[in-house]
Amino acid sequence: MEIPRFRFDYSFLDLNELHSQCITTQEIEALFYSTLNRIFDYSRTDGFVHCIGYSLKNKFISFIFELNGDSIRITTVWLSYEQEIRDRYYFG
After folding, report:
1. Is 40 strand, coil or helix?
2. Beta-carbon neighbour count of residue 55 at 10 Å?
3. Torsion angle, CA of 22/27/28/34, rounded to 10 degrees?
4. Is 73 in contact with 85 (CB distance < 8 Å)?
5. 32: helix, coil or strand?
6. Helices (runs of H) and strands (runs of E) counted in the chain
7. What pLDDT, on a 0 to 100 scale, did the predictor assign at position 4?
8. Within 13 Å and on the Cβ side, how many CA atoms surround 92?
9. What is the pTM of this model?
10. Least CB-packed of 31, 47, 72, 73 within 10 Å?
11. Residue 89 in contact with residue 53, Cβ under 8 Å?
């Protein structure tokens, strides 16, 4: 089964700030489709989804997004910190 392709909306982000953290939109999209991520769906209770994963550029990146039909609205992106990586990525 093929994974559906989404349109990514970065209008809520400051792309200059993202660039200052050495994170690209291509990394975010690759991470979203990667099997090396963890996704926590809080959409029914809090209206957002959290993704954390290991990028192809050897960084742990987290981002919050909202799913709206065929569009993914990225609202927050950050480089994950050590405790978050342990708790959310290497759980169980």
Report:
1. strand
2. 19
3. -140
4. no
5. helix
6. 3, 5
7. 76
8. 1
9. 0.88
10. 47
11. yes
* SS3 at position 84: helix
Instruction: Strands of 1-92 (E only): list them.
Output: 7-9, 37-42, 48-54, 60-68, 71-79
pLDDT on residue 2? 67
Contact (CB, 8 A) for 34 and 53: yes
Q: Give Cβ neighbours of residue 11 (< 8 Å, ≥ 6 apart).
A: 73
Tokens of 57: 């550029």
Q: What is the mean pLDDT of each run of 10 residues along the chain (92 residues)?
A: 84 94 94 92 92 92 93 95 89 60
CB atoms within 10 A of CB 61: 20
How many angstroms separate the Cα of 22 from the Cα of each of 13, 25, 39, 47, 83?
Answer: 14, 10, 22, 28, 21
pLDDT in tens, 49-70: 999 999 988 999 999 999 988 9
